[in-house]
Specification:
Blueprint lengths: L1 H6 L11 E2 L2 E2 L30 H28 L17 H8 L1 H22 L3 H10 L31 H32 L3 H7 L2
Antiparallel strand pairs: 1-2
Helix pairs in contact: 2-6, 3-4
Length: 218
């Protein structure tokens, strides 16, 4: 009987987390094993933001990072293009990009309202795709003593930032290629966040457009 039991192969233990886009969360790895680290900085977290965080919290941080990175990449492009190309509203929206939204609200209030509604719909769709319903999330966070999440909890089968929007079919099917593309997106998003912050502060101080300020230096 003992020999028979020995011949039976033990089934490998199932991972605690599902595999999504080739990634299986590893609580012991840096950022739970999510892509995004790049030499020469490697596992860069000097302030220790991710230290001792749960997988759920790390996923929430990554969701915030990739989302802000995408918004910042659009913002940088919007600053450079919007300040030098004015095809909409009969060219009435001009000057520093910091003032463009206020100008649109004054010039075309209905368009501004449409813009706000479009953003609200987009954010609601993102929330319903990746986030657990607030009541369930609050109960989970209370039971697990998660602090500072404000009722936020990502679904276990949701990959941070992957809301299913890929009209051009750019998302790779190969896990290694996906990790590489994700790292590139994160790196560009991180640079864009720094650039956008610089653009905003520069225009608040100088009161001039980005290229206008650069031109005044030469």
């Amino acid at each position: 009987m003992a020999d028979a039991d020995a011949d039976v192969e033990e089934e490998p233990a199932k991972p605690a987390w599902p595999t999504i886009n080739g990634w299986t969360a590893d609580p012991d790895a840096f950022c739970a094993g999510l892509p995004g680290a790049l030499s020469p900085l490697g596992d860069f977290d000097p302030a220790g933001f991710t230290k001792d965080l749960s997988v759920q919290e790390i996923k929430r941080y990554r969701e915030a990072e990739v989302t802000h990175g995408r918004v910042s990449m659009l913002a940088v492009l919007g600053y450079l293009v919007g300040e030098n190309f004015h095809p909409l509203f009969n060219g009435s929206i001009t000057g520093p990009a910091n003032t463009h939204l206020a100008q649109v609200q004054e010039t075309a209030p209905f368009f501004f309202a449409f813009l706000v509604a479009a953003i609200a719909v987009s954010e609601t769709t993102r929330a319903s795709t990746g986030w657990v319903e607030p009541e369930e999330a609050l109960a989970y966070n209370a039971q697990n003593e998660v602090k500072g999440a404000f009722g936020a909890l990502l679904r276990d089968n949701y990959y941070p930032g992957d809301i299913g929007f890929d009209p051009l079919g750019l998302k790779p099917n190969d896990p290694a290629e996906f990790a590489t593309m994700q790292t590139k997106e994160l790196q560009n998003g991180r640079l864009a966040m720094i650039a956008a912050m610089g653009f905003i502060v520069q225009e608040q101080i100088s009161g001039d457009t980005i290229l206008g300020t650069l031109g005044s230096l030469f």
